[in-house]
Each structure stands twice: as C-alpha cells, then as structure tokens.
From TrEMBL:
Record-linked Pfam families: DJ-1_PfpI (PF01965), HTH_18 (PF12833)
GO molecular function, one term: sequence-specific DNA binding
SMART domains per record: HTH_ARAC
Record has RNA-binding as a keyword: no
This protein's name: Helix-turn-helix domain-containing protein
UniProt keyword terms in alphabetical order: DNA-binding, Transcription, Transcription regulation
HTH araC/xylS-type domain: residues covered: 211-309
InterPro entries, sorted: Class_I_gatase-like, DJ-1/PfpI, Homeodomain-like_sf, HTH_AraC, HTH_AraC-typ_CS, INH-QAR
Transcription regulation in keyword set: yes
C-alpha cells in the first residue's frame, strides 16, 4: 500500500489539506481495495487553523516511510521551521515524491527542493515566489508542474488536478477516472492549462491626468483606439505620452489597452451567450481571428474553453496539426 503523508503546518488552509486527503482516501482499485494509506503529520499534536484546531496523530517521523508527501498551503508564507526543512530535504534525498498545493510551494522552495526546477503556485503569489527564490523557474499560468519527484500546483482546485495526475501516473486512467467521479471533478484538465488569471490593470495614482483618458478608453473599447488618438486626447506627442504613461502605470499604453479589451471579453464570455464574432467586435479586436490569438496569448486558453469553464458548457474539441 502506498503511503501519502500530508504535512500540516500552522495556519494551514483547510481546503488545501482536505482536498488531497479526500482524493487519495476515495481511490479504489477495480477489486475495491484501497491503494493509498493517508496520514496527517505535523510538528505538534494540535495545529491551529482559521476557526478550529486539528488533532494530529503522527509527528514528523510519519514522513520517514511515506511514499508521497503533500504540503498544503498556509495563511502565512513565512519560512518553515528548521525541523520541517530538514525532514523534507531528507525525504527528497530518499527519493520520496513531494508535492505542494497552492502556496505550499514556498515551503518546498525554502527547503531548496525547487532550485533549478519549474514550479507554480497560486497566481496571486507567483511574483512573490519568483522574487524570493530567483533560482526557481516560476510558471505563473499553469495548473500544476510535474518534475518527476517534485510537483507543485496552483490554487486548491488545481491541487485536485495534480492529485488526479499522480493517481493516474500510479494506477492508470481507469482508476483515476473513478476517483474523479467520486470527487465530482473533471479528469481531463491538463497541467499546462492556464489558471484563468484575472488580469488587473496596473494602478494609476489618484488624481492622475490619465484618469479621464482611461475612462474614455473603457467607454470606447469597441472602436479603433490608436496610440496617436490617446496621445492627442492627452495633449502630448506620442513619445512624451508613452513615457509618462509607463512612468505612472508600469506598462505601455497599447499593453494597457490589450488588457482592457481582454477583461471586457472575459466579462462577456462569462455573462452572455453572444457569439465569438460579436464579442470580438464588442471588445475591439476587429476580427475573430485576432481575438482568438490575442485572448489565448494573454489568458492562456481559447475563448471557447474559457466560456466552457465559467458557464459549464462543453468546450469543442480542437485538432492541432
């Protein structure tokens, strides 16, 4: 039997911990046997979470004979204790498979287990992970990353995808499909699928001379908006306008405009049944082809797949090649 140890740290996010516990606990072989033994391990017998405390049966010694260790996310992404770091490093040296859910990736990074590897975490924390651990190749737009012995996943839901991926790797697609049905989650989301990031506009200082211009852009996204038109409304040359725009927003006018159009398209895909051709016009992309190409470049998936994910519709199959 394969032992899965969930390493519970202080202020653990309950769902980040419960999801993999449920996923592996519900897995069954065709003859009904349980292939996984799941245990909770921690430094102390009681671990606080938001609203309640968890009673833990095993200490860090429970990691020593585990085949897989999963580190859930915590509300505090500060450094783990030296004992936790040492236990994870020893497990990695022994060849134990180690995975993280959400910001649990910071714990793996603190232990040095992600140095030189690709990794992901929740999209709100990817910049912080990359800043604090420059030796980690952070992938902000994927659901999970499998490096073989070390895996990382994005948010809690992506942790379910990662667990199903591990189950499929261990026991095959039929067992993983049954586990997915028991957990009422899809089997087929792949690790490279985008996290559906909400691309916020860079902040603009309150009272900035750009505020009226940006409001005008939002009100006129369906029309043609050029750099010259934006500069003219601001009473500047294109060169001066571009420089001041970047100084105040951290991005270029055309990049800001693209994000605004993508956000409009995301809203329409989520909240309307308008055909793709109409949304392309409403968001100012001109042609459906340009819309699909730019939407995929920014969001990481197609408009059809995005709508399917947020409206519960089946995405059309796509043949590549």
């Amino acid at each position: 039997m394969h032992t899965v140890a969930i390493l519970v740290l202080d202020n653990v996010v309950p769902f980040d911990m419960a999801a993999p516990f449920q996923m592996f606990s519900w897995t069954r072989l065709p003859d009904g046997r349980r292939p996984y033994r799941v245990r909770l391990c921690a430094e102390s017998p009681e671990v606080p979470t938001e609203g309640f405390a968890l009673r833990i049966d095993r200490g860090l010694d429970g990691l020593e004979d585990a085949d897989t260790i999963i580190v859930p996310g915590c509300d505090d992404t500060g450094p783990p204790s030296p004992r936790v770091v040492a236990a994870l490093r020893e497990a990695a040296r022994a060849g134990t498979r180690i995975a993280s859910v959400c910001v649990g990736a910071f714990v793996l990074a603190e232990a040095g287990l992600l140095d030189g590897l690709r990794a992901t975490t929740h999209w709100m924390a990817t910049d912080d992970l990359a800043r604090r651990f420059p030796d980690v190749r952070v992938e902000p737009d994927v659901l999970y990353v499998d490096n073989g012995g070390i895996l990382t996943s994005a948010g809690a839901a992506a942790g379910l995808d990662m667990c199903l991926h591990m189950i499929r790797r261990d026991l095959g697609s039929a067992v993983a499909a049954h586990t997915a049905r028991m957990s009422v989650v899809p089997l087929e989301r792949e690790g490279g699928q985008a996290q559906f990031i909400v691309h916020e506009h860079p902040p603009v200082p309150r009272g900035s001379a750009l505020e009226p211009l940006l409001e005008w852009i939002e009100d006129n996204l369906a029309g043609e908006i050029t750099l010259g038109a934006m500069a003219g409304r601001s009473g500047m040359s294109e060169r001066t306008f571009s420089r001041r725009f970047r100084e105040q927003t951290g991005t270029t006018p055309l990049q800001w405009l693209l994000r605004a159009r993508v956000r409009r398209a995301q809203y329409l895909l989520e909240n309307s049944d308008h055909p793709i051709e109409r949304i392309a016009r409403q968001a100012g992309f001109g042609s459906p082809t340009a819309f699909r190409e730019r939407f995929r470049r920014v969001v990481g998936t197609t408009p059809h797949a995005y709508r399917a994910a947020f409206q519960g519709k089946k995405a059309p199959s796509v043949t590549v090649g």
